[in-house]
Amino acid sequence: MSKIPNPLVRSFAALRVPRAVCAALVSWPAVSACLIAGFSPFVPAAAAQTAGNGTIEGRVQNAASGNFLANARVRVVGTNAEAFTNAFGEYRLSGLPAGPATLEVFYTGLAAQRVSVNVPATGSVQQDVSLRGIGVKEGEAIVMSAFTVASQRETDATAIAINEQRFAANRKDVVSTDAFGEINQGNVGEFVKFLPGISLDVKDGNNPSGIMVRGFDPNYTNVTMDGGQLASAVIANTQTSSRQFVLENANINNLARIEVTKLPTPDMSANLLGGAVNFVSRNAFERPRRELRISTYLSANAKAIDLKKSYGPLQDDTVKILPSFDLQWAHPVNKRIGYVVTAAQSSQYYLQNRSVLGARFTSAGATVANPYTTNMNTNFAPNRTDRTSGSIKVDLKPWERNVVSVLVQANAFKQQQASRGINYNVGANAPQPGWDEHNTIGAATGGSVGMGNSFQSRHGLTRAVMGSWNCAGTDWMGEVAGSWSHSNNRVRDIAKGFFNSVSVALPNVGRVNLRDIDHARARFGTAEVFSTAGARINELSLANYNLTSVNGQPMNAQDTVKEARASVTRRFSLRDNPVSVKLGASVNDLVRDIEYSTLTYNYVGPDGIAGSGDERMAGFVDDDASGTSPGFGRPGPQWPDSFKIWDSWKNNSRAWARTATQIGDTTRNEAVRSPWLHEVITAGYAMGDGKFLRNRLRLVG
Fold first, then answer.
1. Which residues make beta-bridge pairs with 276?
2. Global pTM value
3. Which residue spans within 493-554 are E strands per DSSP?
4. Would you kindly state where each structural domain of the chain is located, as residue ranges?
5. What average pLDDT does this structure show over 338-348?
6. Out of 1.10.8.60, 3.40.50.2020, 2.170.130.10, 3.90.190.20, which CATH number does the structure's domain 168-281 have?
7. Which ranges in 99-250 belong to alpha helices (H)?
8. Which stretch of DSSP H or E encloses residue 647?
C-alpha cells in the first residue's frame, strides 16, 4: 500500500535536512497542539482580561548590592500576565490594556514589592524596580552588619540559587560562584563538589578531573559554556575513547554561576545520561557601575615551607612557596555596550606520600580474619601545577531588545610530577612459622626488593570563541549562537631529558623479613633483606641494584568542537493561560586526534651483553634526592636519577636493547591508542511550555 508523504516532510527533505530533524519539527508541534487543545477545556479561565497594546518594561535591581537581578518574576496583579527578567535584569510585559495597573515584583530572599503603573494605550512605559531586604522599608537607610562584604556576597549567592531553582522548568541546581568564597587554584571541581548529587573523578589523588552526576561516569556528563559544548583533550592513554570533560580545561574566575541539570528538557543535548553542567559566563550588565576585584595569595605545602630554592619536582631547583592572583574587571560603558575582563594565575606545589600494604590469607594457616603481610610499597611524589586563564566578553545592544555577546577565553595548564618508590615483597612461598599480625618472616627464597621512578611533564591549552544573538519581540523570542573551541594536551618525557618510568631491582634476593608492622598507620619498623646465600644486603645502597628497564610514553591529544544552534519561541495565550512553543536545531562538529606511543628499553650494561654483571646502578645515583624519606617512618635510600639514565641512553646506545616483543608493542599501541575521529551530529526539537491554574501548574515537554 502506498503512503502519501506529509508535504512538510517532503519540503524538509528537499532542503536535505536530516530525517530526525524533520520528524521533530513536524510531528512534535502537532502532538503538543493536540495535547494542549485536549487539556484546555478542563482548565478554568482566569478573570477576564481585555487585550490591549500597552507595554511595561524596565529593570529590577538589588538595592543593597546594586546588582541587576536575573529571573525576577514580574506580574500584573489580577491577571495571568507575567514575565521574568533576563540576565541583565530587564523585563517586558506587552499586550496590556490601557489604564492603571499594579506590578508585583518577586525575587527569592528579598521583599516582594508592588508598584502602581499607568499603562498607555499605545507605546511603552519605563518602570524600574529596586528590591530591598525583608524588613527594610522604602526610604530607610540600609544598615550593613559586621563583615558586610562576605555576608552580602553569601546572601546574594544563596538567593540566586534558590530563585533559579524555584522558577526552572526542570530539575536544576544553580549556584553562584560567590557561594563558597575563594576556590583553590580556581579549579571548578573544588566548587561543584559541594553541590548535591555531584561527585568527582580525581586524578593523582589531588586534582579533580571529571564530574560525575548521580554516580554516573564522567563520560555521561555533558559540560557546556553558555550552552555551547567545550573541547576537552584526554589526559591519559587509557582515555582514548572517553567523552569526559577534563576540569583543568576551565577556570572558575570567568564564571558567574554553574547550572547542574539532572532532568533534561527537549532543548538540551541528549548525550547526558548522568546529567548536564553548564558554565554561565559573567556579563557586564549584571553590575550598575564599573567594578574591579583583585585577590592575591601565597600557597605553600606544610612539608616544604622554605623561601629558598630546593630540588624538584624535576631536575631544576624551584621555589616551593608560590604566588597567585585573580582579577575581574566589569565595565558597563553605557546602556548599549559593556565588557568583562578576567585573568588568573595560580601555582601550587604539593608533596604526596603513600604507603600500600599487601596481605595474604590462603596459606601458612592464615585466614581472612588473620592474614599475614606480604609486601609494602612506600613512595613520595612532589608535584607542581600552574594554571593560567584569561577571558574577554563584550555585550552589545545594537537595537532595543537585541543583545549580541562575544566571548574569547583561554586556559593553560602545566604539571610536573616525579614519583619515587621502594617495594619490599616476602614472595609467594609460605612464610616461616611464627609469623603474626606484626611480623612476617619470609621463606628462604622468593623474596624481592625493587625501586622505581615515574616522572611526567604535561602541558594543556584550551581556547574558545563563542558568540550569540538574542532578540525579543512582543510575542516572539529568538536566539542564534555559535562556538569554536580547541583543546590540546601534550605529555612529554624522553623529549624533556628523562623517562616516564625507571625500573630497578635488587638481584640475588632470597629472604625478606618485615617486622613491627603497624597496619593502622600503614608502616613497619624494620626490613631485613638476605641474599640466597644468607648474607645480609643493604637495600638502601643503589650500588647493590641492577637497572632493568626504562619506558617512555609521549602523547599528543587534540580536540576541536564547532557548534551552531538556533531557536525561536512563540508566546501566546490559551484561555488566558500563557503558553509557548519553542522550535530549534543544532549542528555539532567534533574532530579528535590522538597520537600515543610507548617505548621500552632494556639495560644490558656498557658491554652490550645482558646478564654479564655490569648492569649495576652505582653511576646513576640521584645526588639531590638521595636520603629523602618516602615517609611513614622509612629511612631514605639512594634514589635512581632518571636524568643520568637518560644521558646513558642518549650517548651509549650499546648499553640498551629492545626485544621483538617490545618493538611490536610500540607498533600495536600506536595503532590501537592513536585514534582519529570526526563526528557530526545534527538535531532538531520542538518544546511546549504552558502554565495553567493561575500559574500553579506548569507542563513542559
1. 222, 261
2. 0.79
3. 501-505, 509-518, 523-531, 546-552
4. 168-281, 284-554+597-657
5. 94
6. 2.170.130.10
7. 148-167, 188-192
8. helix 642-651
